[in-house]
Amino acid sequence: MKKFYPITISLCLLWAVHANPQYNRVHQLRDAFNKEGNVNSFDLLPLAIDAGKDAVPYLKQMLSSKDNEKIERAAVLLGYIGGEEAIIALKEAHKSESEVFHWALCKAVASRGNKEDVSFLIKALLPDASHDWWESRLTAAFSLGILRAKDSVPALIRAAKEAGESDLYGFVAEEVISWIQSEQASHIVGDISQPERDIYSAIFANGIFGIRNFIKLFDCNLHGQWIRQQNLWAFQKVDSGRREYPEISFNIHLSPDENRAFVVIDLLQQPNQGYIYNYVLRKIDSNWRVWNISLRGGY
Length: 299
Known about the structure:
Layout: H1 6-19, H2 21-33, H3 41-51, H4 56-62, H5 68-81, H6 84-93, H7 99-108, H8 115-124, H9 134-147, H10 153-163, H11 168-181, E1 187-189, H12 196-206, E2 216-219, E3 224-229, E4 232-237, E5 247-254, E6 260-270, E7 273-284, E8 287-298
Parallel strand pairs: 1-4, 2-5
Antiparallel strand pairs: 2-3, 3-4, 5-6, 6-7, 7-8
């Protein structure tokens, strides 16, 4: 019988890591996930996006942890990763009393969008007698907008009316309705390199909450402005030397294989008033599409 000595095994493991970069990315996520101290799920998102669906088996395992913080952290990351495997993992471990699991599912199903998913999201739009999970409701509305789910429009109208004119959720519901009912998607022109150009185009085509009434957006990162003419957004370089409002910035994290993107959008409608969003996108058949959206915070 042939013997394998420790040095041989070590060399084999080293070769496996270099031969399979995804293996290394999952391990980087695992190490950061289990780091001692206060671990913020948002800080792990770039690692989770880099690992993609290959991270699902490990995160699914973490859903059975005895540590509630790790369970919720795993659920959040699975919601962002999305896809069939992540949805199944979340549903199998779904705790009906957990807002985090419910929110993660509202996010994840936007990446699939079958009839069952749409029904789940419509039900999530309105509070029931046992709970009123505000973040889940917002995320459900965004997911229905991504899916362009026409069947959800009556529920969104009802949700907007019940929320009231001054409620953020009501504004989101109204704008998502406009996404669903729009006949043409926006597209962009301008001197922007690939793949960022196609990522911007997919984001504008999907919709960004809060820009519906603007025809011009100052981009502080690109040092220019986005100008809208009907369904066209044109980017122009501008060196004004001062801040202008409304202001927008896109911080794009692209996975090493350039098939996934995590984008933080910071929209400042006027000084001290605006929103921060997390967008996840996937490239499918050479086309970028929005995978899920969440409202990360506001000013």
